[in-house]
Write the structure tokens for this entry.
Amino acid sequence: MKTEYSFADGKRGAVVKLPRGSWVIQNGANSGVGRAIVAIAKSLGLRTVNVVRRDEVVAEMKALGGDVVLADGADLAKRVAAETGNAPITLALDGVGDTSPMNLMNCLSESGVLVSYGGTSRKPMVVNPGSFIFKKQSIRGFWLLYWYQSAKPAEITAMFDHLTPLIAAGTISTPVAATYRFDQFKEAITKAAQSGGKVLFTPKT
């Protein structure tokens, strides 16, 4: 069994090496991607700090296996340190943007890396220059297409070999908020603009 894993972003190789038992922090934790990260991290022996924007989803994320679940806020670093016993965190995953990445970077240890893969807030990323100057932290972007373009066939196969059993068992799943017929596309679009899960179309019967 491997005792160390690497988070890689494609052409530039490994971003962070993570020994088993390491902590990873992410925002947007109750999104489809966030839920998958919890499951994948657990399968690799990693622990997660999961940051959400609404208190009402904290219990749900804990039930899904999140080791620590906290609402975002300016004092996030203090609360994360208390929950993890001041454990070092070298990897943060940002799918939100706005001021949330700054809160995540405040939780990172020296030379920690924040990986940005999305921006659901639709606002520019806000970060503190001190993170780069005094803590030697860095930000990297991740797009799956680039990883596919640079990964070796054996690496892609290994990824799917690891993920497929998790999906088949329902460990990785995406919440479905509602289903609509194709002639209900207006209602579907309205629902899709809200949070709470994916919106699916079903054949008219």
About this structure: Strands lie at 4-8, 14-19, 23-26, 47-52, 68-71, 89-94, 113-116, 138-141, 176-181, 198-202. The radius of gyration is 18 Å.
